[in-house]
Amino acid sequence: MNIAEIANLAGVSRAAVSRYFNNGYISEEKRLAIRRVVEETGYRPSAQAQTLRTKRTRMVGVIVPKMVSSSVGKMVEGMLSVLDEEGYQMVLAVTRNDPKKELEYLSAFQEKLVDSVILVATIFTPEHKRILKTLSVPVVIAGQRLAGYCCVFQDDYHAAYDLTKTLLEKGKSRLGYIGATFQDRAAGEERYRGYRDAVGDAGYEALAENYAISRFTSASGYEKAGELLDKCGMLDGLICATDTMAMGAAECLRERGIAVPDQILVAGHGDSEMARVMVPSLVTVHYAYEKCGEIAAGMVMEALGQGETPRREVKLGYYIDCGPGHFS
């Protein structure tokens, strides 16, 4: 089955069939006739032919650090809700937290004809910035801020500041912090900076030194909690850069016979499902990850629809979920 045969069966011209499949203008009578033939025959236009004609693949490349992550999963769901509605497909690349893999996928997407790229970024090396400048398709950054690009990201600094302030106001004055690498500006640098400034503003400047740097795993959170206790002595509150780290830290404390939250209150960032089903549940920061994905995909659609879109930065809000029974 081809366009000529569709036209013959529908009693219209080949040009009318072409306009039908490319959303051009045709009369409602011709549109209904063509649709009837398409439905009866099950005809589908060649994707390769459409790509050659329109220079569009209707695919968006999405690069993420990992899939075993509540935050990433929510962002991807948000992107899919927009892309599905707009008739686009997602090509998902998972880097396993390897910045070199991010570079490889950025180069691959340039060569493999996706219409746009969404990068759920972790760090930006000079090589990242160089490759991003060479891309000929629209790029949107999700989860980090990078000047000169459309970005949608969380207010990591103020979230960490307010979380720390909440614990201090509830009488937790011997705090410790488990953070991520400072190369990750959002989860690493900005969240630690929020913790540091909050304890400093409250008159507890020395607490800024009570920190350890962890990988993004519960096993590393477990390990770093032990190191922090050995370094700082008994704490009454422990703030972690992610819920995953916090879950590992809580397990370490329990194994040492330390009651959570009665002796040490553990808090995280991310409001993950696991954080809520823990007993007791974690004190955590809720970020609008799904909305982040929706906005990022919406920026892509704007860029593809307009050819070029103004550089926009969107910073999203948050709230602190204290859960039941943590504070009297």
- The side-by-side strand order for the widest beta sheet comes to 2-1-3-4-5-11
Which runs of at least 5 residues are low in confidence (pLDDT < 50)? none
* Amino-to-carboxy terminus distance: 72 Å
Rounded average pLDDT: 90
> What is the 3D form?
elongated
Task: Give the DSSP E fraction (strand runs of 2 or more residues).
Answer: 15-25%
Relative helix content: 40-55%
The ordered string of helix (H) and strand (E) elements is HHHHEHEHEHEEHEHEHEHEHEHEE
The profile of the biggest β sheet is: 6 strands, parallel
Helix and strand content put the structural class at: alpha/beta
Could you tell me the radius of gyration in angstroms?
25 Å
Q: What's the number of extended β-strand segments?
A: 12
Count of separate DSSP helical elements? 13
Account of the protein in words:
It is a single chain. This protein has 328 residues and is an alpha/beta fold. It is built from 13 helices and 12 strands. It has helices at 3-10, 14-21, 28-41, 47-54, 70-86, 99-111, 126-134, 156-169, 185-201, 218-232, 243-255, 273-277, 289-306; strands at 59-64, 89-94, 116-120, 139-142, 150-154, 175-179, 211-213, 237-240, 265-269, 283-287, 313-316, 318-321. A 6-stranded parallel β-sheet has the order 2-1-3-4-5-11, with helices on both faces. A 6-stranded mixed β-sheet has the order 7-6-8-9-10-12, with helices on both faces. The longest helix has 18 residues, at 289-306.
Please describe the structure with a list of short key phrases separated by commas or semicolons.
13 helices; 6-stranded parallel beta sheet; 12 strands; about 325 residues; about 50% helix; alpha/beta
